[in-house]
Design brief:
The structure is a homotetramer. By secondary structure, the first copy, chain A, is α+β, with helices and mostly antiparallel strands. Chain A is built from nine helices and 18 strands. In chain A, α1 crosses α4, α4 crosses α9 and α7 packs antiparallel against α9. Chains A, B, C, D: Belongs to the chorismate synthase family. Chains A, B, C, D: This reaction introduces a second double bond into the aromatic ring system.
Chain lengths: 364, 364, 364, 364
C-alpha cells in the first residue's frame, strides 16, 4: 500500500493539503452496529482545533466534519466510512513569499527532492493540518474501544520546554489550554509562552499517552509488535522525534532486578514495560511518551537556499503555533486508539477462539 | 499481512523458534543482478553470533546460513531468496523448569494470554534468537545499498549501563566485544560486565545507528514517513523500549532557532533532524538511537505466578546475555538497512522519472 | 488492508453507498507531474453515466467529480488525490418496500448475514453505483499510461444475450449506446432490449478489454501475476461471474502445438496467451474477457424470504438497467488500467535498472 | 508486499525454483491449537506428486515436507509455520540446451525481459514445481476449515481436451489418475493420453472445485470480494487462463428470471451464483471452474528466437506433463482453501460479535 494508509483491519487512509479545498479520510474496517454521528467526532476535533487560545495559531477553522458513508440510521454498517472537512480559512497570500524558498527544518526541501514539485501553500501535505483527519478517525476507534471494551485512551502534556509537571491530576488536563495535569504549572506555562511569542521563537514539548483497560494479548510479533506499531503511529505525527514505551530511555541504566515487573496473584507490582511484553499487551496500562520538536515557522530570520540553490534569508510570516506540542495531545491519543483498534481486530481474527485458563491479573 | 513480514517492496518474512529445528526467512523483492553468496551474509551473522566473548551467552551456534533460492550463477534473479539456519545447540532441558511458570519481564505471560499455548523452550518465538534472520536479510540490503548507491549503515554502542562513551572513532568499534567506539571506555565496560555477571544481575544499553550517503527523497508521507518506518523497525527488535531520530528527546527543551538546521549552498549547517524532514530523507546522515532494556533472564529470584495463577519464585538458569545491548548493534544496522532498501524501491517505483533542478546540498 | 483498497503502489480506496450523501475515493501513489483536471475524469464518467439512453436505468446523476487534493497548479504533486461525487437523484422511497425482504440474486441476504445490518436503499454499498469511483480513478491511470507510456486501454461489448458480434471496428464502439463494434448488430441489440424491457426481464453480456502498447515485464509472480491481478480486479466488478485471459476456456480443447504462440524476430505469430506468459506481460496486447450476469432487479415476481425467514414474493420496482453489461465497458477498462498502472510502478520499483539485450519483438 | 505472498491474515509466502536446492514457504497467521504434523500435509502433496502414473512427468520427487517451526507438542502455536521440501531429482543437463533459447508459450522470454537474467533450469521460479508449497500450505487451511468449521474443499477434472464427464460420483475421483468423477470416461481419457503422448503433443483441461459447509458472510467488498480473491488465487496457478464462479460464462445468455436463485425457508432453489452474492458467501456451496492451457514443453519443433533475437527452432526434451491439468486438482483445492481460510479470519476479525436473526437457509 502507498504511504497514506495506516492499519491492516482497521485502515485509515487520508488525503488533503493545508490550503487545498478539503481534508478527508476513509475509515475501512470499522465493525458494524456502532452508534456513530458527527457529534462523536466533533468533540475530539474541537480539542485539537486551532485558534482556541492565544497560545496557538490564530488561523480559524471550524473543522466541521461530515460523515458521507458507512453509517445508516445512526449505526455503522461495516462499510467504509468517508469523512470530509472543508478548508475555510486559507490565506494563501501569506505563503506566496516562500514559494521559491526552503524554510529551514520544514519539508520544503525534501518534498522538492522527492516529487520535483510541491504545493508550497502552508506546507501543503506536510502541514500538521493533515492531523485533523487522524483525530476524526481516532475518535471512531476511541468510541468503539470504550463502548465495547471499556478501554480509555488519554494523553497529557508532561513537559513544555523547560517546564516539567510535578503533580498529576487527570481532572486538570482539560481545565487549561495546555492539556497540563499539574494545576500549579499552568501559570508558568502561560508566562513562558507569552515571552516566547514575543521573542518570535518556538519550543518543544513532551506528550504522554495512556491506554487503560486494554486486555492482554494484543500485538502481532515479531514485526507487528504492539509497541512497534505504536512507535510507527506516534513517530508519523508531524514534529515527533522520539518515542518511548514504559521506562523508555531510562532502561539504559536500569538493572534487570530493578526493571523487571514482578507478578503476583494480585497483579503486576510495577509497569516499567509500559504494558507491553514481547510485543504483546500485558493487561497493564499502555504507556507511551513522545518528544515534539519546536515549530520551524519563525519570524526570526534563518539562512537557507532557494529552489535554484542560491543562499537566501528566510522569515516565515503567516499564523503558526509557537509550540506544536500544545495541540498534539488529541493527535497522539487518536493514533494510539487507531493502533489498539487495529490490533484488537487482528487479534480477534486470528485468536477469537483461544481459551486461557491463566487469570488476567492486570496491575496491582 | 500477518505480523511476521516487514517491508512493502523489499519484504522480509521470517519464522523460527529459539529451540526449534531451524530459523528461516524469505527476502522477496530484492532486485536482480546483485552478486550474492552465503559469505556476504555470514560476516554480519558472525558479528551478532553468541558465544564470541565471555560477556555474552555461552550458547554456541555456528549460525551458518544457506541460500536456498533466488540466486543463480552467483547473482540474484529477482525471485524470492530463501534463507535457512539450522539450530544446533539447543539444550531444552535447561528450560523444563519454567514450562509452567512465567518469567518476570519475559513474554511468557503475554504469549499464553494471546495464544493459549506457548513453546516455552528458551522463549520460543519471543527469543532474540529470531534476530539472526533479520541480520541475514539486512546483509542483503546493506550489500545492495552500498554497491549500487554507496550507502553505508553502521552502528555502535554509545552507553552500557552507567558507562557513556566520550570519544568517537569508527575504527575502534570492531576492536572490542562491545562495538564501543571509545577505546578508553572498553576496560571500564569489561570490568563492569564482569562484576555484573558475578552479581547475577543484568543491565541496559544504548545503540546508535548511522546511515551515510542516503539520497534525499526517501520516505512516504504521511504514515509511512521514513522516520516512522525506522521507529517501527527498531522498536520491533527484542528489548528495545525507546527510539530517537536526530535530536530525539533533546528537542523538548530546544528553541526553534536552535533546532532548525539552516541550509547553505555548501550544505546543511547542523543535523538535529537526523537526516529526515517531513518524513523524507534530506541527504544528510540518518541518525537513530535506541534504548535496550536489561535482560530479564536472571538467576536472582523474582516473584511471579504459574500458569494456574499461583504465586511462585522464579530463578532463570540456562545461558543468557547479561546485556542484550552488546549484541544488538548488527541487528539495529540490519533493520535500518531493510527500511532504507524498502523505501528506495518504493520511491523509485513512484518517482523514478522525477527530475529535480535544486542541487542536493548534503551536509556541510 | 481492509477490502475497499486495490493496488499496492497505485492504491485506490473507495467509499459510498447508492443512496448516501456522496461517493468518494482516494488515489494514493500517482506519480507527480501529471497534468490533471476534472475534465480528464469527466469524459470516462459520462460514458458510464446512467440515463443516457432508453436502454439503461432512468436514474439521472450528473456524476460531476471534484478533485479535492493532490493536484496543484494543474499537475499532480505525488500526494493522495481525493475525489468526490455527490449523489443528487436518490429516490429512497422506491426502496422502502424491500427494506425487510431479500431480493433474489442480490446481496441483501449476504450483507445481512455478514454485518447484521444493511443500508437497503438501492443496495447500499453493494450497488453498482460504487463503480463510478473506479471509473474516475481509472481515468487517472489511463491518462498516465497513455501520456507517459503510449499504452491504450479500450473495451467493447462482444455479446449481448444471444446477440454476438461478427464484425469488428473500434470506430463503431462509441457510435452506439452498447459499446458495440459491429454496426450491423446495433439494430438487433436495440430490438432485443426493447422487447426485453417490455417483458420485464433482464439479460447477461460479455465485455472484452484490450491493452495495447504494454511493455514486456509487468507482473509479479508467483501470486501477483499480472493475469491473477487482472482476474481479481475484473471479478471484483458487480455482476461479473467469469474472467478469461487470451484463449481462456477455449484452451481446454487446444493442443499445445496449436496454443503456443511462436516467436520470430518479426514478433509473436499469434496471441492465444492474451499478452501474458508466466504471469508477466509479453509486449503483445493484453486480452481479457468477462461475463456479466443479468440484472437481478426485476419487476417479475420472484420467491424469497423476509428478514425473519418467512416466505415472501418479491417484486423490484424502481429504476434499473435491464442489462448491466451495457454500461460495464468503461468500468472494465478502468480496472485494467488500474492494474497496469500498479504493476508498472511495482516493476519500476524493483527492476528500474535492469538492462535487457533481447529485443522487444511485440506482435507480428 | 512483494508478489510471493498471498492472504492478509492467513498469509502464505513461498520461495524456490524447479532445480534449486529446495522449495519452502511460511504460513503466517494460522490460529493456535490446531493439531498438525507432517502427515497432515503429505497426503495432499502425494496427490499432486509427479511420477505416480504414466500420464504425468516421470520426474521422481519424494516431496517430503518438513515442518520447521510454529508447531509445538503436536499443536500449532500461532507463530509462523516454516515448511521445507528439498529437491532431490533435478537433472539440469536436460535443460542446458535451452539456456539461450526461449521456449514458445513459456515464461522464458518474459522473465528475461523483466529481470534481465533467469534461472533457465526447468523454468526456474516459473515452473509448476512451485505449486508443491501451495498444496502444503493449503493442507493446513483445509484441516482447520474441516476440523473447526466442517468445511470441505474438493475438486475434480470435468474435462480433458475433448473428453467431457457426463456422470458424477465423488467416490470415483480418487480411483483414477485423472481425478475424474465419471468412471465411464476414465478409459477414454487413458486412451486419449496414450495417443497424445505418442504424438508428442499436449492438451488442456478443466477443473472444478467445490467448497461445502461455508457459512454465509465471508468476503470483503468491494475489492476483496470472496469471488474476486478466488479469481486471483486460481488465476495465479500456472497454466490457468480462465476462471468461472457458478454459472460463469453461461450467464451471458441467461435471463434474470432464469439466473436468479430464489430463496425459500427451506433454502435456495438453485445455485447459479456459485455460492457468492455481492462478493459474500451465501451459505450455498462455493463453485469455481478453471481452464488450464496445454503444456508448452513439447518435443515437436516450434519456431522461436534466442536471447540475441535470432530465429531458432526449439525442441523441448526432458520430462514433462502432457496435460498439466491432470495434477492441478489438489492445487486448485489448496488455493480455494487458502482463500476461505483468510476470509474466515478477516470476517471474524471485523464481525466476530455480529448477531444475525435471519436463519442461514443454505441450499434446498
Amino acid at each position: 500500500m502507498s504511504g497514506n494508509s495506516f492499519g491492516k483491519l482497521f485502515t485509515v487512509t487520508s488525503f488533503g493539503e493545508s490550503h487545498g479545498a478539503a481534508l478527508g479520510c476513509i475509515v475501512d474496517g470499522c465493525p458494524p452496529g456502532l452508534e456513530l454521528s458527527e457529534a462523536d467526532l466533533q468533540g475530539d476535533l474541537d480539542r485539537r482545533k486551532p485558534g482556541t487560545s492565544r497560545h496557538t495559531t490564530q488561523r480559524r477553522e471550524a473543522d466541521e466534519v461530515r460523515i458521507l458513508s458507512g453509517v445508516f440510521e445512526g449505526k455503522t454498517t461495516g462499510t467504509p466510512i468517508g469523512l470530509l472537512i472543508e478548508n475555510t480559512d486559507q490565506r494563501s497570500k501569506d505563503y506566496s513569499k516562500i514559494s521559491t524558498q526552503f524554510r529551514p527544518a520544514h519539508a520544503d526541501y525534501t518534498y522538492m527532492h522527492k516529487y520535483g514539485v510541491r504545493d508550497y501553500r502552508g506546507g501543503g501535505r506536510s502541514s500538521a493540518r493533515e492531523t485533523a483527519m487522524r483525530v476524526a478517525a481516532g475518535a471512531i476507534a476511541r468510541k468503539f474501544l470504550h463502548q465495547r471494551l471499556g478501554i480509555t485512551v488519554r494523553g497529557y502534556l508532561s513537559q513544555l520546554g523547560p517546564v516539567k509537571i510535578e503533580k498529576f491530576d487527570w481532572a486538570q488536563v482539560h481545565q487549561n489550554p495546555f492539556f497540563c495535569p499539574d494545576v500549579d504549572k499552568v501559570r508558568e506555562m502561560e508566562d513562558y509562552m507569552d515571552a516566547l511569542r514575543k521573542s518570535g521563537d518556538s519550543i518543544g514539548a513532551r506528550i504522554n499517552v495512556v491506554a487503560e483497560g486494554v486486555p492482554p494479548g494484543l500485538g502481532e510479533p515479531v514485526f507487528d509488535r504492539l509497541d512497534a506499531d505504536l512507535a510507527h503511529a506516534l513517530m508519523s505525527i508531524n514534529a515527533v522525534k522520539g518515542v518511548e514505551i514504559g521506562a523508555g530511555f531510562d532502561c539504559i541504566d536500569q538493572k534487570g532486578t530493578q526493571h523487571r515487573d514482578e507478578l503476583t496473584p494480585e497483579g503486576f507490582l510495577s509497569n516499567h514495560a509500559g504494558g507491553v511484553l514481547g510485543g504483546i499487551s500485558s493487561g497493564q496500562p499502555i504507556l507511551a511518551s513522545i518528544a515534539l520538536k519546536p515549530t520551524s515557522s519563525l519570524r526570526l530570520p534563518g539562512r537557507s537556499i532557494d529552489v535554484d540553490g542560491n543562499p537566501v534569508e528566510v522569515i516565515t510570516t503567516g499564523r503558526h503555533d509557537p509550540c506544536v506540542g500544545i495541540r498534539a495531545t488529541p493527535i497522539a491519543e487518536a493514533m494510539m486508539a487507531i493502533v489498539l483498534m487495529d490490533h484488537y481486530l487482528r487479534h480477534r481474527g486470528q485468536n477469537a477462539d483461544v481459551t486461557v485458563s491463566t487469570p488476567d491479573i492486570g496491575q496491582a
